Structures are given as C-alpha cells and as structure tokens.
Amino acid sequence: MKVLLVDDEKEFVSALAERLSFRGVDADWTVSGEEALKMVKDGQYDLAVLDVKMPGLGGIELRKRLHGMHPQMKFIFLTGHGSHEDFKVGSEEASFYLAKPLKIEELIQKIKETLNR
Amino acid sequence: MSNRFRTVATALKSRLTALYRPPFWVDRARRYCYIWVVSVSLLAVVSLVPLTLMVLYVYDSSQKAITEENVLRILRITSNTRRTVTSFFEQRLKALRFTAQVENYSLLRQSGHLAEVLKNLKYGFGGIVDLGLIDASGIQVAYAGPFELEGKDYSGQGWFKRTLEQGAYVSDIFLGFRGVPHMIVAVRSTNEQGGDFVLRATLDMESLSEILHSLELSEHSVSFIINTDGIVQTPSRRYGEPLEKVCCMPVPEYSEHSQVFETGSEEARRLMVGYAYIANSPFILLLVKEKAEIMQNWYELRKNLITFFLGSFIVIFLVFYVIPTYIIQSLYEAEQTSAKSIHRLEETARLASLGRLAAGVAHEINNPLAIINEKAGLIKDLITFKAECKHDERLEGLIDSVLASVERCGAVTKQLLGFARHTEVSVTEFPIAKIIKDVLSFLEKEASYRNITLKLDIPEDLPPMVSDRGKLQQIFLNLINNAFQAVNDGGRIEIAAKPAENGRIGVSVSDNGCGISEENLQKIFDPFFSTKKGSGGTGLGLSITYGLVQRLGGDISVESELGRGTRFTVTLPTATEEVRDEGPTCG
Predict the structure, then answer these.
(1) Cβ(B550)–Cβ(B580) under 8 Å?
(2) Which of A44, B111, B227, B562 has most Cβ atoms within 10 angstroms of its Cβ?
(3) What is the mean pLDDT of chain A?
C-alpha cells in the first residue's frame, strides 16, 4: 500500500507523511501538482490524498490527470475550505472529502476503507 | 367552509378597523396624516359647501314664496270681506235714507205704518231688528220692533248727536236702554214742516256675524270687527267678547288698503293678522290666522329639505372619508411592504457578506491550524512511538491540550463553513409533528433533569410538509436548544404549529426565559453574536437557522420582552418548490 500526499503546505504534508509512516502507511509527499504528476509517472501509488486548493495545478484537475494515467488509482480530497462546486465535484469524484484540521485516525480509517473498496 | 368564512370575516373586520382607525394615523405617519387631512378636507369643502349653499338658497326662497303666498291670500280674503261688510252697512244706511226721504213723516209716526216699513226692509235687505222714528228733541215718537222702546229719550246718546251732526251714522256696539250689546244705523232727515228727525234701525248682529264667520275656513282662523279704540264689536271666539278690549294684538295703524302684520311673542302662537279699515265707520275688520297652521306646507317642505340635506351630508361625508382613507391606507401599506422587503434584502445581503467573510476567515485559519495539528500530532507520535524520545507525561499532557484546542478551533471553523455553505436541498414528504417530536426526543432527558415543562400544540390535520427533513431538524433543534438555554430550571417551553397565509405553516417556539433586549434583538441573527458569553456559545446557531429557513423559502421572526420570554416564529411553505441559489459562495 503506497500513498501519495499532495498539499502546498510543506509543514503540513511532511508531518502528515511521517505520522502515517508511524502507523504503517508508506506515504510520499509533495507540495505541487506538477511534481505529483512526475512522481506518479515514475512510481506506483495505490492512493493519492490531494488538497483541493493549490497554486498552479489544483486538486480537482490533478485528480483528472492522475486518473487518466492510472485509472485504478483511488483518491481522497482534503480541504481547508472548498466552495459549493468543489464539494460537489469532490463528493462525486473522490472516495472521501475531508476537512482540515483532520484526525489522523480518521484519515487512516478512510484510507483503509478506500483501498478495500 | 367555516374556516373560509372566518378568514373573510377577519379580513373584513381588519379592513373596517383600518377605516375606523387607519394604521398610518395610529403609527403617526405625519406625511400620510397630512395627505389624508388635506384630501378629506378638500373633498368635503368642494362638495359640501355647494350643497349647503344650495340648500340654504332653496330654504330661504321657499320660505319667502310660501309666506308671500299666504300673505296674499289673507289680503285677498280681507279685502273681499271689507267690501262685503262695507256693503252691509251702506246698504242699510241707503235703505234708511231712502225710507226717510220718500215716506211721509206723519205716516211714519203711525206705528202700524212703521211696522209695515220694517217688514219691507227686512224682506228687501234683512239684517234689521227694529226701526224707530226720533224727533229733533231725541224722543222716539214711533217704534216698530220686538222691544218696548216707544217714547224713549235718546237726546243724551252720542250716536243721536253724531247723526244730527253728520246726517248718517253707524254706531259702535253699545248696551243702550235694553242693556244688550247692539249696533245701530241712523239717518237724519227733514219733515214736511222743516224740522229734523232721525230714522234709526238696530242691526241684526247675527247677520253680521254670519257674514264674518263664513270666512273662517278653519278652527284656527277667526274673523271679527273691532273699533279704532280696540273694542271688540262682534264675537271673536278667543280674542275678546263684544265690548271688551281685543287681546293678543295691537290696534293696527290706519291704512287705506288691506294690510297684513305678524304678532305674538311665542313662535308656536304667532299670528298673522289681515286687517282693513271700513270706510265711513269706526270699524276695523280683522282676519286672524295662526301662523303654524297656514305655514303647514312650509313646515313639511322644511322637514323634507333638512332630511335631504342631512342625508346627503352624511352620505357625501362617508364617501369622502372612506375613499381617501382606503387609498391612503393602501399607499401606506404598499410603502410599508416595500420598506420591509428592502430591509429584508439588505439583511440577506449583509448576512451573505458576513458568510463570505466567515468562510474566508475559516479557510485562512484552517491551514495553519492543520499544520499545528499535524506538528503537535507528530510530537505526540514521536513520544509515543520512538523509544529514544523520553516518555514524559507532562509533555504528553501539554500536547493533548494543544490537540484539544486545535479540535475545538476546528469545530468552530467547520460551523463557520456550515453557515456559509449551501448544500443541495433533499426534498421528501413528512408530517411536521414528526420532525418536532424527533427533535424533542433528543432533549427530553434534559427537560426531565431540569424540570422544564414542554407543551406541544400541533393540530393533527395540518398538511404534510414536502421539504428538506434534515434542514428542518436542524432549524428546530437550534430553536428549541436556544429556548432550553434561555429558561431557568422549572421553566416552560411551548411549541405550536398552525396554518399560515398562502398555504404555509407557522411554527412558534416560545419560552418564559430571560428574554432579549431590544438592542440585542436587532443582532440576534448576526454570525458570532451571542448572549451566552463564557458558556461555550459560538454565536452561529441562529445565523445558521436563519440561512436554512431562507434556503427553504421561509421566514423567521422573533419577539421578545426582557424578563417575560421570547418567541421565535418560523413560517415555511408546505412544499419547497425550488432551491434558492444565493450566488457564488466561498463555502
């Protein structure tokens, strides 16, 4: 099980990756959508946790591209906010839509649920 | 049907009350009061003044015309009567004069012959009672008639002297030797020896009275004769007996022609008196009529005129009161409605701005909060999972405290986003009572612990709601929760539902708690506004409720009085037809 974390907040995403690793989840992280595309191209990920709002390539568009590259890949959206439209698209296109700040146990549970679907 | 009748009756009563006490007058809306006063006054003046002037003109001219007509009638009758009475006296004088001239004096001295002459006079003219021949010394030398008057001396009588002086004389009424009121006519003539003698006849008062009474057309009309001293000469019914002073009226001034004057002090007893001086006599003919009787036509007309005027006045005034009042009231209501709509739009716009601001703030806080959360979580993980990190309970406690605070902040920002976010409305059908009972089931235990009385008044025949069940639950949970926080232990909360206008349902949640001040009432739906300082209130509950009610196409209002309690009333359509899109949000 390999997870990719994508969020423009480095302090957040790096700490989250380390906390997941303490719980047995192998997680890589990056702070931009473009970098995420490269990482997915080079490696194999089962699931991506994406921030919806990011400078440049946002979470919604990034999901589309990643899905195009790996149709079997699963997604969980994170947001500090999210408009009505974001929420609508996120609910339809991702397995879960989680709001920051999140509980690590909840994220672990959602990751497991997503991968088990 | 009865509900429909009750609604119509209520609407009618409300309209009538609005006419009787126009709300713009009660609210002291000065501009509308001014317009109303000017409109009603102008319309009243423009219509009522011409009506009043016209009625006054008709009143005056009718009164004059009828009075003149009556005066003319009295004048005509008086003139005709004068001619008749004058003729009565003149005919008898002429008859006497003719007799005195053609009859031989010595024959006249014979009582038998005189009686024959009297008989002829009675037959030819009538109106003569007796006939007497008086010599120059005043002794009645011959007499024919029903009394014993032969040999009587008239030399001291005023009428005898006047007759000798004037040649002919009609006397006032006097008692004479018989002591009976009577009237005579006498003429002077000359006998064959050149001496004067007087031929006298007593007039039959009955005949004269009959002439006069024939003119009395009603019981209130009297015709009689007085002399120039005001002494009644013929029976007058109520204005004095013969030889008495005439009562109730003055002796009229001399006039060659017939005249009419009005007399009497009391209006009800006013008299109209026609009079005429009878030529060659001391008599004045009077025709007295009661004004109340002869003006009867005028009184009838006056009554009809006054009734017409008052009726028209009332109808015109009512019309000119009701129409401007109704129009101005409608304008006032339209302005009030418009002002309320503008106020509501402003309020909605204000809350939408605040929502966007709240969402922005939440977003900006959430990201750093997430970092704090993860960093603190990582520290805790390090303490927990890394053996080299010393297990420090105090440090662990502090980290837990940081995480708890982060969780609390997160709850606030989520509520903020909930306030601003508009999710889809999921419409289903259900009874309103079910929703409220579901909500109350969450709070029954608290009510029981705090001894709070819950009263539910929801009629069973209310139509079912077709709306978003979840949002309605949230609305009523917020309102009832609010009531729970407002009341003291042992307080009372009432929830009532009833049909409202336009097929809506109104639900009110009332409590007998502390109430809300007028100042706070203005801000009650503002985000972050809370009166529950220090007790964990976020100030978002009622803001969210407001947004949800608007979203479902409803209205919410609040009434409160400090120390007495508060009532929230939510009016919702029974069917939510469409989802309101209130523009882009940052939700």
Answers:
(1) yes
(2) B227
(3) 85
Please answer whether residues A93 and A63 qualify as being in contact, where contact means their C-beta atoms are separated by less than 8 angstroms: yes
The closest of B426, B504, B581 to A84, measured between CA atoms, is: B581
Residue B322 backbone zone (phi > 0: left; psi -120 to 50: alpha; other: beta): alpha
Chain B interface residues (partner A, CB cutoff 8 A): 359, 362-363, 366-367, 369-375, 377-378, 381, 384-385, 406-407, 409-410, 414, 417, 421-423, 584-587
pLDDT on residue B188: 93
Amino acid occupying residue B569: T
Domains belonging to chain B, first-starting first, are 103-207 (3.30.450.20), 216-294 (3.30.450), 423-587 (3.30.565.10)
List, in sequence order, every beta strand (DSSP E) within B204-279: 221-227, 259-263, 271-277
Please tell me the predicted confidence (pLDDT) of residue B535.
46
What single DSSP character describes residue B267? G
Check if the beta carbon of residue A35 is closer than 8 Å to that of residue A79.
no
CB-based contacts of A2, cutoff 8 Å, min separation 6: A26, A27, A28, A43, A44, A45, A46, A47
DSSP-based three-state secondary structure for B458: coil
Burial class (CB in 10 A: 0-12, 13-18, 19+), B425: middle
As a whole number of angstroms, the distance between CA B335 and CA B29 comes to 11
The answer to whether residue A89 scores a pLDDT higher than 60 is: no
User: In the numeric block, which tokens belong to residue B42?
Assistant: 């102008």
Reported in sequence order, the residue ranges of B22-104 that DSSP labels E, i.e. its strands, are none
Q: Are B164 and B155 in contact (CB under 8 A)?
A: no
Q: Which CATH class is domain A2-116?
A: alpha beta
The size of the A-B interface in CB pairs under 8 A is 75
The residue ranges of every structural domain in chain A are 2-116
Q: Which two tokens stand for residue B32?
A: 């509308």
What pLDDT shows up at residue B579? Answer: 42
Across A14-28, A42-56, A70-84, least confident range: A70-84
B497-504's contacts with Cβ under 8 Å and 24+ in sequence apart are B497/B432, B497/B433, B497/B436, B497/B457, B497/B458, B497/B459, B497/B462, B498/B459, B498/B462, B499/B462, B499/B463, B500/B571, B502/B573, B503/B463, B503/B573, B503/B574, B504/B554, B504/B571, B504/B572, B504/B573, B504/B574
> Which one of A5, A12, A86 would you mutate to disrupt binding with B, by most B Cβ within 10 Å of its Cβ?
A12
Give the separation between CA B272 and CA B78, rounded to whole angstroms.
12
Contact check, Cβ <8 Å, B366/A16? no
Mean pLDDT by 10 residues, chain B (587 residues): 70 75 82 88 87 92 91 90 89 90 88 90 87 92 89 89 91 85 91 88 87 73 89 86 86 91 77 90 90 86 92 87 87 86 70 68 79 87 78 76 78 65 61 85 79 90 84 85 88 92 90 87 75 55 82 88 91 69 32
Q: Residue A91 — pLDDT band, cuts 50, 70, 90?
A: low
The DSSP code sequence of B276-309 is EEPTTSSEEEEEEEEHHHHTHHHHHHHHHHHHHH
Tell me how far apart the alpha carbons of residues B340 and B332 are, in angstroms, rounded to a whole number: 12
Q: What are phi and psi of B568, to 5 degrees?
A: -100, 135
Question: Of B77, B75, B90, which is closest to residue B212 (Cα–Cα)?
Answer: B77
- Contacts B582 to A, Cβ<8 Å: none
